[in-house]
């Protein structure tokens, strides 16, 4: 192997309560395409943040072109030719393409006045876009572009930086098949030009097509490397998961009960043309899988009354409901554990007690005045039941770990009487121990007769926890899988829209 | 009482002691009663302003509301010769109505509170000036309302009624804000509107009610102020008064980002502001420096609080790091 452009030696990174990376070694040769794979939370993003100089490793050595970098900063990483194409796009909606490509290094004119030379930036951006086969002009505002087009802007930005190492974090997650193929061609071109690429994706086919080598991470450690000849689908899955996904599963205690919530032709503001139909039954956990942006969260928010319902109806126990706000949903025992617990789930400045009592505050009031003792008593009960680890129920929610914060969100609803629980990414950013606690809580709820819908992008979770899986693709339910049909492969195919077993496309 | 409030109380006592040492007239019964009267006048609407600030909003229109409701009140009594209880009632309804309009525009039309109430500030004063042809509205010669005057400008046991009203309202507001369901909702909305909505709180309604209460207290204050000045020149009456309210709330620990604040704090903030005004008079500082003194003290107070909080957090972080 020639002198690597990039070398990571014995990288460790720990966050409070989580060992995010342990003893990671990685070297990338010039012009090499390395596929980096791993489940959500395996440490891929942390590793890339370290490479980009965003976070510092707890220990370990980073070498760029043989030179040791002890305190790698973002600007130094850029100077050394490391460029990112992010999963969540980092573009300014209000600026045009050229301004985004040259953001922070604008071309200037008129010496003294330091005016921005828009014309120069546009003319320099044009060839980059042509090279990428983009169908838009450099002066198009980013707000007017589709997700795929924005992705190309990110890549153009990396190219304009003269990057030697391009890190692509899930670049194809929102691209169509044609767009993806075009991207794979671009990767091949970059490789031919001597650029090294680290390609992070969940789509193993793409890795099969373009990677020279595959590195798999699991629980923060490198668990295996596959050379070009060894790269194949099953081996990659084997490395990533390292265990049988179905083994996690705890079956329901009793038989599945009767239908309680029916989504009849529900249409959301995000996908106004797609009517969504499904039903939830008592005692059953339904997993809702799909790619980011497939409309899962919007569906849950619409049922919960946060987003406006623009068509169809939510039918609970045979009766259509008028749900205009979360308050209406809550009144019918439909509760949502939202995706972003820090923004939507909790009031971080408030203590555990106030967070738990908030949705049911009147319960703790006599003549409209609050009885703090009763609130605390109920909070203590919930904290005990859910095993919330905190010095006391007066601890401020913001000081808790992710897992305990999520338990507080759950406690809010468990203190009331749920009929239907909607979970949106219930274990995102939570350590392994708390995860399994949350899984058993979800199962216990289901066994107590609650209908559960669990949105999750974590394949292990969807397959390991659900009794039935619904898969969404671009706003519609693209398929439904029973337990004996569960496989990562099946779910993925439905999620990317390659297969469908639903009758009504939109 | 929070540490912040305690700090403010100590500041008030220190400033008071210094002024009293330099000029003993500070503690004379006349001066104390006058200051108490002013604290009452400014305190009532400051409480309302504080409530709005806790939701993360602001009300800039209060001073103009005083001008508008003031001229209407005088006109009702002088021109229309309405019985004073009816006139008072009309103003007490008009105040919350103004608040309701603000609340509607902020929550339903989703306009920014600053913009809504800035427009109110311009609009209400403009209407007030047009209403009187920019003239001064005052009571006719010999016209008097003994009961109304006793209620609004009188004293019981030497205590000005404005101050008594302030104390009663502050107590009621303290219970509302710190003990009631509504108060908890108000803080929740101010701290994290989204999480509050996800907990089933009708956040728009909560915010709107804060503006209505603010308007109601402004309406009540406008009656006190009118009876105190007895004549109203609509171009200047109540000018900048909303800023006294904002200053009192901020001094008292309300954050303009919302979600922080207490009634005790707002009360203490009002007291400190009035003592500062008083200090300018008593220490022979040119009265043109009045605003400058207030500005400087608020700036220093907020700065000190910020530094102290940062220091306190570093200390906690340091302790957590060691263990």
Please outline what is shown here.
The complex is a heterodimer of chains A (506) and B (323). Chain A is an alpha/beta fold and 506 residues long.
General description of the model:
The complex is a heterodimer of chains A (506) and B (323). With 506 residues, chain A is of the alpha/beta class. Chain A folds into two domains: 6-244, 3-Layer(aba) Sandwich (Rossmann fold); 257-333 and 419-425 and 451-506, P-loop containing nucleotide triphosphate hydrolases (Rossmann fold, 3-Layer(aba) Sandwich), CATH 3.40.50. Chain A is 32% helix and 26% strand. Chain A is built from 17 helices and 24 strands. In chain A, the strands form six sheets. Chain A has a six-stranded mixed sheet with strand order 6-9-10-3-11-12, with helices on both faces. In chain A, strand 13 and strand 14 (276-281) form a beta hairpin. Chain A is globular, with a radius of gyration of 25 Å. Chain A starts with 5 loop residues before the first strand and ends in an 11-residue tail after the last helix. Chain B has one domain (3-289): ABC transporter involved in vitamin B12 uptake, BtuC (Orthogonal Bundle), CATH 1.10.3470. The two termini of chain B are 29 Å apart. Chain B has a two-stranded antiparallel ribbon. Chain B is built from 13 helices and four strands. The mean pLDDT of chain B is 93. Helices cover 75% and strands 2% of the residues of chain B. Classes of the chains: A alpha/beta (506), B mainly alpha (323).
Share of residues in strands of chain A: 25-35%
Q: What structural category characterises the helix and strand content of chain B?
A: mainly alpha
Q: How far apart lie the N and C ends of chain A?
A: 51 Å
State the total count of DSSP E strands of chain A.
Answer: 24
Strand residues, percent of chain B: under 5%
Describe the largest sheet of chain B: 2 strands, antiparallel
Total strands of chain B: the figure is: 4
Proportion in helices of chain B: over 70%
* CATH A-level architecture of chain B: Orthogonal Bundle
User: In DSSP terms, counting alpha (H) and pi (I) runs of 4 or more, how many helices of chain B?
Assistant: 13
Mean pLDDT of chain A: 87
How many domains of chain A? The number is: 2
